[in-house]
Specification:
451 residues, mainly alpha, 3-stranded antiparallel beta sheet, DNA-binding, RNA polymerase II cis-regulatory region sequence-specific DNA binding, cell cycle, transcription
Length: 451
DNA sequence: CTCTCCCGCCAGCAT
DNA sequence: ATGCTGGCGGGAGAG
Protein backbone atom coordinates (compact mmCIF):
# COMPACT_ATOMS: atom_id res chain seq x y z
CA UNK A 1 0.00 0.00 0.00
CA UNK A 2 2.63 2.42 0.98
CA UNK A 3 4.63 1.67 -2.02
CA UNK A 4 1.64 1.68 -4.23
CA UNK A 5 0.39 4.99 -3.10
CA UNK A 6 3.76 6.52 -3.11
CA UNK A 7 4.39 5.30 -6.56
CA UNK A 8 1.07 6.34 -7.87
CA UNK A 9 1.44 9.86 -6.75
CA UNK A 10 4.57 11.13 -8.38
CA UNK A 11 4.48 9.16 -11.49
CA UNK A 12 2.52 9.54 -14.63
CA UNK A 13 -1.13 9.12 -15.11
CA UNK A 14 -0.71 5.63 -16.26
CA UNK A 15 1.07 4.74 -13.15
CA UNK A 16 -1.69 4.46 -10.70
CA UNK A 17 -3.71 2.42 -13.01
CA UNK A 18 -0.97 -0.06 -13.02
CA UNK A 19 -0.53 0.26 -9.35
CA UNK A 20 -3.99 -1.01 -8.83
CA UNK A 21 -3.64 -4.24 -10.63
CA UNK A 22 -0.22 -5.50 -9.69
CA UNK A 23 -0.87 -6.65 -6.21
CA UNK A 24 -3.48 -9.12 -7.14
CA UNK A 25 -2.01 -10.09 -10.41
CA UNK A 26 1.42 -10.33 -9.08
CA UNK A 27 0.37 -12.69 -6.43
CA UNK A 28 -1.12 -15.02 -8.92
CA UNK A 29 1.68 -14.57 -11.29
CA UNK A 30 4.55 -15.37 -9.08
CA UNK A 31 6.70 -18.37 -9.50
CA UNK A 32 5.47 -21.49 -11.04
CA UNK A 33 2.02 -20.17 -10.72
CA UNK A 34 -0.97 -21.35 -12.52
CA UNK A 35 -2.34 -18.51 -14.53
CA UNK A 36 -3.68 -20.58 -17.30
CA UNK A 37 -0.98 -21.88 -19.47
CA UNK A 38 1.70 -23.71 -17.72
CA UNK A 39 4.88 -21.79 -17.86
CA UNK A 40 6.58 -23.59 -20.64
CA UNK A 41 9.89 -25.15 -20.36
CA UNK A 42 11.20 -21.93 -19.17
CA UNK A 43 13.65 -20.02 -20.96
CA UNK A 44 16.33 -21.36 -22.21
CA UNK A 45 19.16 -23.16 -23.19
CA UNK A 46 21.87 -22.58 -25.54
CA UNK A 47 20.72 -24.19 -28.72
CA UNK A 48 22.81 -26.59 -30.60
CA UNK A 49 25.19 -24.89 -32.91
CA UNK A 50 23.76 -26.03 -36.14
CA UNK A 51 20.36 -25.62 -34.71
CA UNK A 52 17.62 -26.86 -36.85
CA UNK A 53 15.21 -24.22 -37.94
CA UNK A 54 12.77 -25.32 -35.35
CA UNK A 55 14.81 -25.31 -32.26
CA UNK A 56 12.83 -25.36 -29.16
CA UNK A 57 14.70 -24.40 -26.13
CA UNK A 58 14.78 -26.49 -23.10
CA UNK A 59 15.35 -25.68 -19.58
CA UNK A 60 18.97 -25.85 -18.79
CA UNK A 61 18.23 -26.79 -15.29
CA UNK A 62 17.28 -29.59 -13.18
CA UNK A 63 13.69 -28.73 -13.49
CA UNK A 64 13.77 -30.83 -16.51
CA UNK A 65 12.17 -30.22 -19.81
CA UNK A 66 8.81 -30.77 -18.26
CA UNK A 67 7.06 -29.44 -21.23
CA UNK A 68 3.40 -29.98 -21.33
CA UNK A 69 1.78 -31.94 -18.60
CA UNK A 70 3.71 -30.21 -15.90
CA UNK A 71 6.42 -32.65 -15.05
CA UNK A 72 4.56 -33.63 -12.03
CA UNK A 73 6.98 -35.91 -10.29
CA UNK A 74 10.07 -33.96 -10.87
CA UNK A 75 8.43 -30.66 -10.53
CA UNK A 76 6.80 -31.57 -7.34
CA UNK A 77 9.86 -33.23 -6.03
CA UNK A 78 11.82 -30.09 -6.10
CA UNK A 79 9.00 -27.69 -6.19
CA UNK A 80 10.56 -25.04 -4.16
CA UNK A 81 13.81 -25.44 -5.93
CA UNK A 82 12.21 -25.58 -9.27
CA UNK A 83 11.92 -21.93 -9.66
CA UNK A 84 15.04 -20.01 -10.15
CA UNK A 85 15.16 -16.49 -11.27
CA UNK A 86 18.45 -17.05 -12.86
CA UNK A 87 16.99 -19.37 -15.36
CA UNK A 88 14.66 -16.73 -16.47
CA UNK A 89 16.88 -13.76 -16.42
CA UNK A 90 16.79 -11.32 -19.22
CA UNK A 91 20.46 -11.88 -19.69
CA UNK A 92 20.08 -15.55 -20.24
CA UNK A 93 17.12 -15.00 -22.42
CA UNK A 94 19.15 -12.59 -24.44
CA UNK A 95 21.93 -15.09 -24.83
CA UNK A 96 19.51 -17.63 -26.07
CA UNK A 97 17.89 -15.17 -28.31
CA UNK A 98 21.21 -14.39 -29.86
CA UNK A 99 22.17 -18.01 -30.07
CA UNK A 100 18.95 -18.69 -31.80
CA UNK A 101 19.14 -15.98 -34.36
CA UNK A 102 22.75 -15.25 -34.88
CA UNK A 103 23.12 -17.28 -38.00
CA UNK A 104 23.50 -16.38 -41.58
CA UNK A 105 20.26 -17.84 -42.67
CA UNK A 106 18.31 -15.71 -40.31
CA UNK A 107 17.16 -12.38 -41.38
CA UNK A 108 13.73 -11.62 -40.19
CA UNK A 109 12.46 -12.36 -36.79
CA UNK A 110 8.93 -12.62 -35.70
CA UNK A 111 8.26 -11.73 -32.16
CA UNK A 112 5.73 -14.43 -31.69
CA UNK A 113 8.02 -16.94 -33.12
CA UNK A 114 10.80 -15.85 -30.86
CA UNK A 115 8.60 -15.93 -27.85
CA UNK A 116 7.40 -19.36 -28.69
CA UNK A 117 10.81 -20.76 -29.34
CA UNK A 118 12.31 -19.31 -26.28
CA UNK A 119 9.39 -20.23 -24.19
CA UNK A 120 8.78 -16.85 -22.77
CA UNK A 121 6.11 -14.28 -22.90
CA UNK A 122 6.02 -11.93 -25.72
CA UNK A 123 6.52 -9.08 -23.36
CA UNK A 124 9.99 -10.26 -22.57
CA UNK A 125 10.92 -10.34 -26.19
CA UNK A 126 10.13 -6.68 -26.43
CA UNK A 127 12.59 -5.98 -23.70
CA UNK A 128 15.33 -7.87 -25.43
CA UNK A 129 14.60 -6.57 -28.83
CA UNK A 130 14.50 -3.00 -27.70
CA UNK A 131 17.94 -3.01 -26.33
CA UNK A 132 19.32 -5.10 -29.12
CA UNK A 133 18.00 -2.59 -31.53
CA UNK A 134 19.65 0.18 -29.64
CA UNK A 135 23.02 -1.34 -30.20
CA UNK A 136 22.42 -2.21 -33.79
CA UNK A 137 22.00 -5.91 -33.61
CA UNK A 138 18.64 -5.82 -35.21
CA UNK A 139 16.22 -3.38 -36.69
CA UNK A 140 12.56 -3.11 -36.50
CA UNK A 141 11.01 -3.44 -39.89
CA UNK A 142 7.38 -3.60 -39.18
CA UNK A 143 4.93 -4.62 -36.64
CA UNK A 144 6.04 -7.83 -35.18
CA UNK A 145 8.95 -8.03 -37.53
CA UNK A 146 12.59 -7.37 -37.03
CA UNK A 147 15.56 -7.82 -39.22
CA UNK A 148 18.60 -9.45 -37.81
CA UNK A 149 21.77 -7.53 -38.43
CA UNK A 150 24.00 -9.37 -36.10
CA UNK A 151 27.01 -8.28 -34.19
CA UNK A 152 28.40 -6.78 -37.28
CA UNK A 153 26.02 -3.95 -36.80
CA UNK A 154 27.26 -3.07 -33.39
CA UNK A 155 30.36 -1.07 -34.24
CA UNK A 156 28.46 1.15 -36.58
CA UNK A 157 25.69 1.64 -34.11
CA UNK A 158 28.11 2.52 -31.37
CA UNK A 159 29.94 4.86 -33.59
CA UNK A 160 26.72 6.50 -34.51
CA UNK A 161 25.70 6.74 -30.90
CA UNK A 162 28.95 8.27 -29.95
CA UNK A 163 28.87 10.74 -32.74
CA UNK A 164 25.40 11.71 -31.90
CA UNK A 165 26.33 12.13 -28.31
CA UNK A 166 29.24 14.32 -29.21
CA UNK A 167 27.12 16.26 -31.59
CA UNK A 168 24.59 16.82 -28.91
CA UNK A 169 27.28 17.93 -26.60
CA UNK A 170 28.79 20.20 -29.13
CA UNK A 171 25.75 22.32 -29.13
CA UNK A 172 24.21 21.55 -32.43
CA UNK A 173 20.60 21.91 -31.58
CA UNK A 174 19.31 18.53 -32.08
CA UNK A 175 15.64 19.21 -32.39
CA UNK A 176 12.58 19.34 -30.33
CA UNK A 177 11.50 22.88 -30.32
CA UNK A 178 8.20 22.18 -28.75
CA UNK A 179 9.16 19.73 -26.17
CA UNK A 180 9.21 21.63 -23.01
CA UNK A 181 5.94 23.34 -23.43
CA UNK A 182 4.39 20.00 -23.79
CA UNK A 183 5.84 18.25 -20.87
CA UNK A 184 4.74 21.06 -18.73
CA UNK A 185 1.17 20.09 -18.42
CA UNK A 186 1.98 16.55 -17.74
CA UNK A 187 2.02 16.37 -14.05
CA UNK A 188 4.61 13.77 -14.33
CA UNK A 189 8.12 14.48 -13.49
CA UNK A 190 9.27 16.40 -16.43
CA UNK A 191 12.72 15.52 -15.47
CA UNK A 192 13.92 14.38 -18.74
CA UNK A 193 13.22 16.55 -21.66
CA UNK A 194 13.69 14.54 -24.73
CA UNK A 195 16.62 14.31 -26.77
CA UNK A 196 18.07 13.35 -29.99
CA UNK A 197 16.66 13.86 -33.35
CA UNK A 198 16.60 10.17 -33.71
CA UNK A 199 16.07 10.03 -37.39
CA UNK A 200 19.05 7.90 -37.67
CA UNK A 201 18.85 4.83 -39.67
CA UNK A 202 18.70 2.36 -36.94
CA UNK A 203 16.21 4.08 -34.82
CA UNK A 204 13.30 4.01 -37.05
CA UNK A 205 11.25 2.73 -34.31
CA UNK A 206 11.27 6.21 -33.03
CA UNK A 207 10.72 7.95 -36.26
CA UNK A 208 7.76 5.84 -36.67
CA UNK A 209 5.76 7.67 -34.16
CA UNK A 210 6.82 10.90 -35.65
CA UNK A 211 5.74 9.98 -39.07
CA UNK A 212 2.08 10.08 -38.59
CA UNK A 213 2.13 13.51 -37.18
CA UNK A 214 4.44 14.63 -39.83
CA UNK A 215 2.13 17.00 -41.59
CA UNK A 216 2.24 19.61 -38.95
CA UNK A 217 5.77 20.33 -37.93
CA UNK A 218 4.69 22.21 -34.93
CA UNK A 219 1.64 20.66 -33.58
CA UNK A 220 2.79 20.05 -30.10
CA UNK A 221 -0.31 18.50 -28.79
CA UNK A 222 -0.15 15.46 -30.94
CA UNK A 223 3.35 14.36 -30.40
CA UNK A 224 3.25 14.82 -26.75
CA UNK A 225 1.92 11.54 -25.73
CA UNK A 226 4.10 9.40 -27.80
CA UNK A 227 7.06 11.57 -27.13
CA UNK A 228 6.54 11.44 -23.49
CA UNK A 229 6.26 7.76 -23.69
CA UNK A 230 9.16 7.54 -25.99
CA UNK A 231 11.32 9.47 -23.65
CA UNK A 232 11.11 6.69 -21.22
CA UNK A 233 11.48 3.88 -23.60
CA UNK A 234 13.86 1.14 -22.84
CA UNK A 235 15.49 1.70 -26.16
CA UNK A 236 16.24 5.31 -25.56
CA UNK A 237 17.34 4.61 -22.06
CA UNK A 238 19.69 2.02 -23.42
CA UNK A 239 21.15 4.46 -25.85
CA UNK A 240 21.67 7.06 -23.23
CA UNK A 241 23.17 4.56 -20.92
CA UNK A 242 25.61 3.55 -23.60
CA UNK A 243 26.34 7.13 -24.42
CA UNK A 244 27.36 7.59 -20.87
CA UNK A 245 30.13 5.14 -21.40
CA UNK A 246 31.02 6.38 -24.81
CA UNK A 247 31.37 9.98 -23.96
CA UNK A 248 32.92 9.92 -20.60
CA UNK A 249 36.11 8.44 -19.57
CA UNK A 250 34.64 7.05 -16.47
CA UNK A 251 34.86 3.40 -17.02
CA UNK A 252 32.72 2.21 -14.27
CA UNK A 253 29.29 3.42 -13.48
CA UNK A 254 26.91 2.17 -10.92
CA UNK A 255 23.34 1.94 -11.97
CA UNK A 256 22.56 4.38 -9.31
CA UNK A 257 24.81 6.97 -10.74
CA UNK A 258 23.62 6.23 -14.20
CA UNK A 259 20.05 6.70 -13.17
CA UNK A 260 20.85 9.96 -11.55
CA UNK A 261 22.76 11.18 -14.50
CA UNK A 262 20.09 10.20 -16.90
CA UNK A 263 17.29 11.42 -14.79
CA UNK A 264 18.51 14.59 -13.38
CA UNK A 265 18.12 15.79 -9.90
CA UNK A 266 14.46 16.35 -9.68
CA UNK A 267 14.41 12.66 -9.01
CA UNK A 268 11.27 11.68 -7.25
CA UNK A 269 12.87 8.78 -5.56
CA UNK A 270 10.19 6.45 -6.80
CA UNK A 271 11.25 7.64 -10.15
CA UNK A 272 14.78 6.76 -9.42
CA UNK A 273 13.77 3.32 -8.40
CA UNK A 274 11.93 2.77 -11.57
CA UNK A 275 14.83 4.00 -13.61
CA UNK A 276 17.20 1.78 -11.80
CA UNK A 277 14.98 -1.18 -12.35
CA UNK A 278 15.08 -0.47 -16.03
CA UNK A 279 18.79 -0.08 -15.93
CA UNK A 280 19.09 -3.47 -14.37
CA UNK A 281 17.18 -4.88 -17.26
CA UNK A 282 19.36 -3.11 -19.73
CA UNK A 283 22.55 -3.94 -17.96
CA UNK A 284 21.64 -7.57 -17.96
CA UNK A 285 21.21 -7.82 -21.63
CA UNK A 286 24.14 -5.59 -22.36
CA UNK A 287 26.15 -7.88 -20.17
CA UNK A 288 25.06 -10.94 -21.98
CA UNK A 289 26.13 -9.19 -25.11
CA UNK A 290 29.44 -8.55 -23.48
CA UNK A 291 29.26 -4.90 -24.06
CA UNK A 292 29.60 -4.29 -20.41
CA UNK A 293 30.51 -6.34 -17.45
CA UNK A 294 29.67 -6.19 -13.86
CA UNK A 295 32.31 -5.27 -11.42
CA UNK A 296 32.46 -3.22 -8.37
CA UNK A 297 33.92 0.06 -7.65
CA UNK A 298 37.37 -0.11 -6.32
CA UNK A 299 36.75 1.87 -3.24
CA UNK A 300 33.14 1.41 -2.43
CA UNK A 301 32.83 -2.15 -3.48
CA UNK A 302 29.60 -0.96 -4.81
CA UNK A 303 28.43 -2.93 -7.80
CA UNK A 304 28.98 -1.12 -11.01
CA UNK A 305 29.36 -1.74 -14.68
CA UNK A 306 32.33 -1.40 -16.86
CA UNK A 307 32.24 -0.76 -20.52
CA UNK A 308 33.82 -3.40 -22.66
CA UNK A 309 32.58 -2.26 -25.96
CA UNK A 310 33.30 -5.46 -27.73
CA UNK A 311 30.13 -7.18 -28.48
CA UNK A 312 30.57 -10.83 -28.89
CA UNK A 313 28.40 -13.77 -28.63
CA UNK A 314 28.48 -16.61 -26.25
CA UNK A 315 28.92 -20.05 -27.60
CA UNK A 316 26.54 -22.72 -26.48
CA UNK A 317 29.09 -24.17 -24.22
CA UNK A 318 29.43 -20.85 -22.57
CA UNK A 319 32.73 -20.24 -24.13
CA UNK A 320 32.81 -16.74 -25.32
CA UNK A 321 33.92 -16.17 -28.79
CA UNK A 322 35.42 -12.89 -29.47
CA UNK A 323 34.32 -11.13 -32.57
CA UNK A 324 36.96 -8.61 -32.21
CA UNK A 325 40.07 -8.27 -30.18
CA UNK A 326 38.90 -8.38 -26.68
CA UNK A 327 40.70 -7.84 -23.59
CA UNK A 328 41.68 -10.80 -21.47
CA UNK A 329 40.16 -11.42 -18.18
CA UNK A 330 36.57 -11.50 -18.97
CA UNK A 331 33.97 -12.07 -16.47
CA UNK A 332 30.50 -13.21 -16.47
CA UNK A 333 27.71 -11.07 -15.37
CA UNK A 334 27.13 -11.32 -11.75
CA UNK A 335 30.55 -12.34 -10.80
CA UNK A 336 32.43 -9.93 -8.86
CA UNK A 337 35.99 -9.12 -8.87
CA UNK A 338 38.28 -6.39 -8.14
CA UNK A 339 38.65 -4.38 -11.17
CA UNK A 340 41.79 -5.30 -12.80
CA UNK A 341 42.03 -3.74 -16.11
CA UNK A 342 44.88 -4.29 -18.39
CA UNK A 343 43.25 -2.68 -21.30
CA UNK A 344 44.41 0.80 -21.05
CA UNK A 345 48.02 0.64 -20.34
CA UNK A 346 49.42 3.35 -18.29
CA UNK A 347 46.54 5.64 -18.06
CA UNK A 348 44.72 3.78 -15.45
CA UNK A 349 47.10 1.07 -14.63
CA UNK A 350 47.41 2.61 -11.29
CA UNK A 351 44.77 1.56 -8.92
CA UNK A 352 44.80 4.83 -7.14
CA UNK A 353 44.09 6.61 -10.28
CA UNK A 354 41.23 4.35 -10.86
CA UNK A 355 39.96 4.76 -7.40
CA UNK A 356 40.14 8.41 -7.80
CA UNK A 357 38.12 8.27 -10.93
CA UNK A 358 35.54 6.30 -9.20
CA UNK A 359 35.52 8.54 -6.30
CA UNK A 360 34.89 11.41 -8.55
CA UNK A 361 32.20 9.63 -10.42
CA UNK A 362 30.50 8.91 -7.22
CA UNK A 363 30.46 12.51 -6.37
CA UNK A 364 29.18 13.73 -9.62
CA UNK A 365 25.75 14.16 -8.42
CA UNK A 366 26.51 15.84 -5.23
CA UNK A 367 28.84 18.17 -6.89
CA UNK A 368 26.34 18.83 -9.51
CA UNK A 369 23.71 19.64 -7.02
CA UNK A 370 25.97 22.00 -5.33
CA UNK A 371 26.65 23.67 -8.57
CA UNK A 372 23.05 23.92 -9.40
CA UNK A 373 22.26 25.36 -6.08
CA UNK A 374 24.48 28.31 -6.54
CA UNK A 375 23.91 29.14 -10.09
CA UNK A 376 26.20 28.29 -12.88
CA UNK A 377 29.69 28.67 -11.84
CA UNK A 378 31.91 27.75 -14.66
CA UNK A 379 35.16 27.11 -13.03
CA UNK A 380 34.40 23.83 -11.55
CA UNK A 381 36.46 20.91 -12.55
CA UNK A 382 35.16 17.44 -12.94
CA UNK A 383 38.15 15.30 -12.60
CA UNK A 384 36.88 12.00 -13.76
CA UNK A 385 35.23 13.19 -16.86
CA UNK A 386 37.16 13.07 -19.96
CA UNK A 387 35.63 12.59 -23.30
CA UNK A 388 36.11 9.07 -24.39
CA UNK A 389 37.81 10.18 -27.52
CA UNK A 390 40.73 10.57 -25.32
CA UNK A 391 41.33 6.92 -25.47
CA UNK A 392 42.72 7.29 -28.87
CA UNK A 393 46.33 6.65 -28.73
CA UNK A 394 48.23 9.54 -30.04
CA UNK A 395 51.57 9.38 -31.63
CA UNK A 396 51.58 13.00 -32.12
CA UNK A 397 54.39 14.96 -30.63
CA UNK A 398 52.89 17.66 -28.66
CA UNK A 399 54.54 19.28 -25.81
CA UNK A 400 52.62 17.28 -23.40
CA UNK A 401 53.58 17.46 -19.89
CA UNK A 402 50.95 15.45 -18.26
CA UNK A 403 49.50 12.26 -19.44
CA UNK A 404 46.04 13.68 -19.74
CA UNK A 405 47.22 16.15 -22.22
CA UNK A 406 47.97 13.61 -24.79
CA UNK A 407 44.47 13.57 -25.98
CA UNK A 408 43.95 17.14 -26.59
CA UNK A 409 44.06 17.16 -30.33
CA UNK A 410 41.12 14.91 -30.35
CA UNK A 411 39.01 17.38 -28.61
CA UNK A 412 40.22 20.54 -30.06
CA UNK A 413 37.33 20.87 -32.33
CA UNK A 414 34.97 20.28 -29.55
CA UNK A 415 36.52 22.83 -27.36
CA UNK A 416 34.92 25.72 -29.07
CA UNK A 417 31.40 25.02 -28.24
CA UNK A 418 31.31 22.03 -26.15
CA UNK A 419 27.78 22.26 -25.07
CA UNK A 420 25.70 19.29 -24.15
CA UNK A 421 22.25 18.85 -25.43
CA UNK A 422 20.99 16.06 -23.40
CA UNK A 423 17.33 16.06 -23.05
CA UNK A 424 17.38 16.29 -19.41
CA UNK A 425 18.41 19.36 -17.71
CA UNK A 426 20.64 17.73 -15.24
CA UNK A 427 22.75 15.87 -17.68
CA UNK A 428 22.84 18.88 -19.83
CA UNK A 429 24.06 21.05 -17.04
CA UNK A 430 26.37 18.44 -15.83
CA UNK A 431 28.06 18.33 -19.13
CA UNK A 432 27.94 22.01 -19.30
CA UNK A 433 29.91 22.36 -16.17
CA UNK A 434 32.26 19.76 -17.20
CA UNK A 435 32.79 21.30 -20.53
CA UNK A 436 33.26 24.71 -19.13
CA UNK A 437 35.81 23.39 -16.77
CA UNK A 438 37.55 21.50 -19.41
CA UNK A 439 37.53 24.42 -21.73
CA UNK A 440 39.24 26.70 -19.35
CA UNK A 441 41.65 24.02 -18.45
CA UNK A 442 42.35 23.44 -22.06
CA UNK A 443 42.85 27.09 -22.78
CA UNK A 444 45.25 27.42 -19.95
CA UNK A 445 47.10 24.48 -21.15
CA UNK A 446 47.44 25.60 -24.70
CA UNK A 447 48.40 29.03 -23.64
CA UNK A 448 51.07 27.71 -21.42
CA UNK A 449 52.41 25.13 -23.77
CA UNK A 450 52.44 27.11 -26.94
CA UNK A 451 53.90 30.24 -25.59
C1' DC B 1 17.93 -6.47 5.64
C1' DT B 2 19.12 -4.66 0.72
C1' DC B 3 19.84 -5.54 -3.91
C1' DT B 4 18.11 -7.57 -8.13
C1' DC B 5 14.92 -7.89 -11.44
C1' DC B 6 10.86 -11.05 -13.14
C1' DC B 7 6.26 -10.60 -14.09
C1' DG B 8 2.07 -9.32 -16.15
C1' DC B 9 -1.41 -5.41 -15.86
C1' DC B 10 -3.03 -2.20 -18.69
C1' DA B 11 -2.33 2.46 -21.20
C1' DG B 12 -1.44 4.10 -25.53
C1' DC B 13 -0.81 3.60 -30.18
C1' DA B 14 -1.29 1.15 -34.71
C1' DT B 15 -4.33 -1.35 -37.82
C1' DA C 1 -12.73 -3.09 -32.25
C1' DT C 2 -8.67 -5.67 -32.05
C1' DG C 3 -3.93 -6.27 -31.70
C1' DC C 4 0.73 -4.67 -30.83
C1' DT C 5 3.96 -2.23 -27.81
C1' DG C 6 6.02 -1.40 -23.85
C1' DG C 7 5.89 1.68 -19.22
C1' DC C 8 5.57 0.50 -14.88
C1' DG C 9 6.05 -0.90 -10.10
C1' DG C 10 4.78 -4.82 -6.94
C1' DG C 11 6.90 -8.01 -4.63
C1' DA C 12 9.69 -12.30 -4.46
C1' DG C 13 14.31 -14.55 -4.98
C1' DA C 14 19.22 -13.89 -4.06
C1' DG C 15 22.79 -12.39 -1.30
Amino acid sequence: MDAASAAAGPSSSAAEAAAAGPSSSAAAARPSSSSGAEPPAAAAQPPPPAAAPQVLFQVPVQVGGASSGSGSSVARACRHHAYSRKQKSLGLLCSNFVALYDREDVETIGLDDAAKRLGVERRRIYDIVNVLESVGILVRRAKNRYTWLGFGGVPAALKELKERALREMSGSPVLLPMEESSTANLSDDEDDKLEDGDEDAESEKLSQSIDNTSDKPDAPGCRLRSDHRKEKSLGLLTQNFVKLFLTMEVETVSLDEAARLLLGEGHAESNMRTKVRRLYDIANVLSSLNLIEKTQQADTRKPAFRWLGQAKRMQENNVTVALAPVRPNKRAFGTDLTNIDNKRGRLDSAMENKAKLMQGAGNIVKTFERQLGQGNRSDFVYGPFHPAVAKKQETDDHTIKQKERRTIQDWENLAVSFRPQYQNQALNDLFGHYVEAWKSWYLDLTRETSS
